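Appendix B. Chain record.
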Amino acid sequence: YEVEGVHCGEDSGLGSAWEANVRMPAIVRWKAGNVPSGEESYDMVSTLDVLPTVLGILGKEIPDEIDGFDVKNVFLGQQSPEEGNGDDNKHLFFWRDGFQTGPLPSPFGRFDVVAMKIGWYKIWFWTKSSHYNADVEVHHDPPLLFDVLNDPAEAYPLDPSEYVELIDRALRLVDEHKRSVDWTQPLT
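Structure tokens predicted for this chain:
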């Protein structure tokens, strides 16, 4: 499967959501006995997960308005790597600006979800180089799809006809997520 005109996985600078720009290792440390020493996990976690995880560790309720997931089971070593990102409930949205059209003044354009992850699958709806470059965003229908565990460079798109259910689920999740955003509040 080839995508014409899209430099899949290219590190195209600030504002790009390709894995080369967003994937970071993380280290978790806590007093002896709480976090196992020397363990590794390939679970997908995000900085959005910090607050719900701290609330979960403290035994507090996590309000529905908070984005992110309680990943204390990952941090505390209570989840085996095999259980890891096979969790189809774990998803992450990648927003960005810089689109040609939108309510914000130039060079910002509009904010939109350009990609998302469901487990180790990354689904691309829009591609564009880094912020404020003159190139026009490209909409993908069907979306580009990558297995970022086995192809972290996002160089080889998967055939979307083999992942129809995953793509349908991704489109539904993006729609639900966008409808949950309160656009009347100022961005801070």
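Further analysis of this model is presented in Appendix C.
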